[in-house]
Amino acid sequence: MPPYREDATAEEGLKTLVLLCTALEKLGNGLDLHEIRRWLEEEIPAVEVWAVPELCGQPGEIAEAVATSGALRLVLGLCSRDYPQIELHAHARRVGIDPFGAEVVNLGAYCAQVHPRPWATDKAKLLLQAAVARALAFPGSQPDSVKPVLSWNQTVSRRALFTLPPLHYEPVPFIRPEACAVEEGCRVCAMTCPREALVASEGGRMVLDKTHCTGCGACVSVCPQKAINLPGVSPQQIDAQLAALLNTASIPLHPRAILFVCARSAPALERLARNGLSYPAGWLPVEVPCIGMVTPPWLLHCLSMGAAATGVLPCLREDCRFGKREVQEGRVGYCREFLGMLGESLDAVRLLDPNDEGGVARALDSLPERATHSGADRPGNVALFGSRPPAQALLRLAEKFAPSLDRSLVHPYSPVGRVQVEQGCTACEACVTACPTGALAMRRDEEGRALTFDTGLCIACEACVPVCPEKVLRVEKVTDLSRLAQGKLTVYRESEIRCEACGAPVAAGAMLGRIAELLGTGDAGIFSFVTRYCVSCRGSLISGRRPIPDRDGGQTHAMEVAVPPPTTREWNC
Amino acid sequence: MSEPEARGRMPTTRMDQTDHRKAKDSHGQGALELADLARFRQVAYRLFSTMLLYPDEERLKTVSAVAGELGDQGDFLVTFPFFIQWSKLLDTLQRLTDMKPARVQEEYVDVFLFNPDYSPNLPYESAYLGSGAAATGWTAVGLEREYAAAGLSISPALKEPPDHAAVELEFMAFLCDQEACAWQGRRLVDGIKSLKHQAAFLERHLSRWFPTFARGVAGRESSQVYAVVTGTAQSFIIHDRDLLEALLKRFGSGADPQPADSVSKTPTQGRGRCHRTEKTPPQKRA
After folding, report:
1. With an 8 Å Cβ cutoff, is B44 touching chain A?
2. DSSP string over A489-529
3. Cβ B270–A161 below 8 Å, yes or no?
4. What pTM does this model have?
């Protein structure tokens, strides 16, 4: 049996093997493979680069190469997307490498066939470096994060009925139970899933129905706890890739732009390459399983990291919940309006149509000349999936380009919201419990209770709205820069009624008032007793363990307590 | 279950070299027979079952020998996502003969039975599903009925309740044997019925609790052998559950040899190789 490879962490110096197909030397304008090899091995520790003849058609070479080098991670630079994936996976497993962590870069369509050799080589270096970063950040796949798919698009003979059909595996999301907030009531991923594949089980876990899941990754983007990993597109990998593409200073490729490409639309770029159309080498493609993963914060985050522009190449199919035109135009529209609010060029965010080759070429034809980050003003390795991803990106852009933060944008695709609490709140904390990010919180102090709201944590999921029993909560889809900058603010304050015996809190004043209103009970009877004393004191008072203090300062013994027995009227409220 | 199997011996008559070789050859021709797949799954379940019983010397030797034989065959396994863990498992089991049996026995007791410092990872379904003595009782009764419905009863020599991991895994091995016989006899309906039975058993029992059990064992720093065993078994069970679901979906209405009308995503196979085998209807001459 071939050796298996123990998992190791990136900090321990994970060795990565980069294999390049030698055909790339001559494909299109060609790539300088020697230069790519030299640069990668100098720039990245523990990387080894091999050029392998006919790598695209003979993935068997992988096994020998990995076995010889002892690598634990694998990156392949191939001529096209057309390669034997099942064989590649098998060969990777044979040498102990998880195939879902092996990165494949289409250096043909993205580099050699569309750009002059020097620029194509520089771009190839960047793409490969980003692929290495992704491979190193790969968190591993779980048994639950792959599903078998039987290919059965053939006429079935009787013999074929008794054989296993061609089988391949697709990645599906894995939810880390230790990070998931489903027990706290979070259902953001389930609400986002276009296939209703995520269901909260009775056992307090979010369960994925693999038969419905298509691996689009939309849940990965929206999870406020970053509890979802999709092999090959986990949050850590995306962060690593974007940082590598935008922060590498030693490649003289400027300006740079990020083009998010839906897997379904990637052939559109290949068609461009085949038809001899070219575009600036600064356009750096990032492939995602579905454009649904790419939310407005992604686009703005790239701009805040120093990209001159960002673009999306979606499928624009009406049967795709996220890829359809209306949604993509909405998302890109929000980004443009936000940039417009800051006085920036709307051209920095572009929507491409995969069915309009000329349109794609025109959209990619130019890049705005934005000042790229250098030196002190480089934002550093700020993560897309940090603790406040939408707010961070919005504020960074605003602080860079807007003279003041006194601006707001109302838009249905705003990634952040603003909670308004109207009169009638009883400080019951139902909204606090429902909020998946902790944007809503209740603070108790000497003055009473304060409901606070942190705009920077809000993801505008509106989970707080339906749970409010008084229906006094509204979420406005508005990007309010000044509120974002202010952080946590008190949106509602209420007094705390305290126990007359010990001073412990009983309930919020508004809540007791509301209960009284619902029960139609005044100060008399059991309601009065319940509202004057805390739970502990009520118990000891009724049991007679201590006398009840009067409001006038005297004392009444338990046997004398003026609590009438419940009447039919009272209990039937 | 027969007595030898209840004692944990690996029944070499069940899956012999011929079966292994057949599986390899059929993969070499590009298609794996469902019978061969079922035989492999039978051996795998039996291996896991045996390893989750108390590791006496004889049992350890047998397991080590079988692991050695399996290591030389099963090239088709490289297609499956649990292949890397399976390789590690076989390697670990082959090295058992290098370890003192007492060491393995000590680990078994420490992980599954008793440890003065922390709770053991009990290898019983009732420890993870339901709570209390009543739930334990109902689980045992339910499983005994399932085994009886399949014509089996637990050997008294085993001295374990019906919900012990080894018993449930052995039952899956039995069902896989039934399935293999059905495919070998070209009995489509029986084969599908067996697939359904296995899928239902996994869904009701093993796949509900075994992953939690395996995660607990993996968290034990002291566990070397059994973390590998239960981790691989977990991957195998989850994969099996998914594969059975996919196979049953493919068979759909049962023994109807019509082409499936669903087109699943087929990854590129390079150089445009075509997998279609369409027959053109004969043309009538004028």
Report:
1. no
2. EEEEEE-EEE-TTT--EEEEHHHHHHHHHHHT--SSHHHHH
3. no
4. 0.82
